[in-house]
Amino acid sequence: MKDNDLERLLAWLNKDDREQAARSYENIRRRLIRMFMSRGCYEAEDVADKTFDRITSKLDQLQNYEGTREPYCYSVGALVLKEWFRHIDKRPKQLPPPPPDSDWKEREQRHACLDECMKKRTSEDQTVILEYYQQEKRAKIDSRQRLAEKYGISLNALRIKAFRIRATLQECVFECMKRNGYEIG
Predict the structure, then answer these.
(1) What integer is the mean pLDDT of 91-112?
(2) What is the pLDDT of residue 43?
(3) Distance between CA atoms of 34 and 28, rounded to whole angstroms?
């Protein structure tokens, strides 16, 4: 969102008190993120930003809006979330396992693509994804608890973070495989 758009949005939220408008914006954004996360959206912050972008794009039409601002924002957020789910449903959920008779070149390419995609992630993301999927049974639970404590987040926030990283990695590997001439799914 551009600075000018943010100023217009804040003026719409509360034209008389800019500080109160900023508090309202932060409160609405925090609640939108919580709402999106509780409904399984692993890109909650991006979807909240898209919600505000959508509202900002309609500000000229909303200048005479008499209703309360917060419920309007949540309504727009619910619609943007539905669009996000429709978009997610069209994306590949995960790479299918290689067929049993696939040749070693395809497996090697898949590993090369994964390595390439991992290098594009931050070191924190690399650590999270590698440690999150290690271990089994009780050791996995303990490992994830330590990882959450290490980053100062809840287990649920860690799960969402790992899921988000994994989804972007899968999409990156899928695109890399396509670029290299392999048809996936």
Answers:
(1) 67
(2) 84
(3) 10
Q: In this predicted model, what pLDDT tens digit does every residue of 17-74 receive, in sequence order?
A: 888 888 999 999 989 988 888 888 888 888 999 999 999 999 888 877 777 888 999 9
For 39, the 3-state DSSP assignment is coil
Please state whether 171 falls in left (phi above 0), alpha (psi between -120 and 50) or beta. alpha
Residue with the two structure tokens 């670029």: 179
**Confidence category of residue 111, pLDDT binned at 50, 70, 90:** confident
Angle between helix 69-90 and helix 44-57 axes, rounded to 10 deg: 120
Residue 2 backbone dihedrals phi, psi, to 5 degrees: -75, 160
Q: What is the pTM of this model?
A: 0.50
Q: Angle at Cα 136 formed by Cα 133 and Cα 139, nearest 5°?
A: 100
User: In whole angstroms, what is the distance from residue 27 CA to residue 35 CA?
Assistant: 12
Cα separation, 83 vs 137, whole angstroms: 36
Distance between CA atoms of residues 127 and 179, nearest Å = 27
- The pair phi, psi for residue 40, each rounded to 5°, is 90, 15
Q: In the structure encoding, which two tokens stand for residue 40, read together?
A: 């399984």
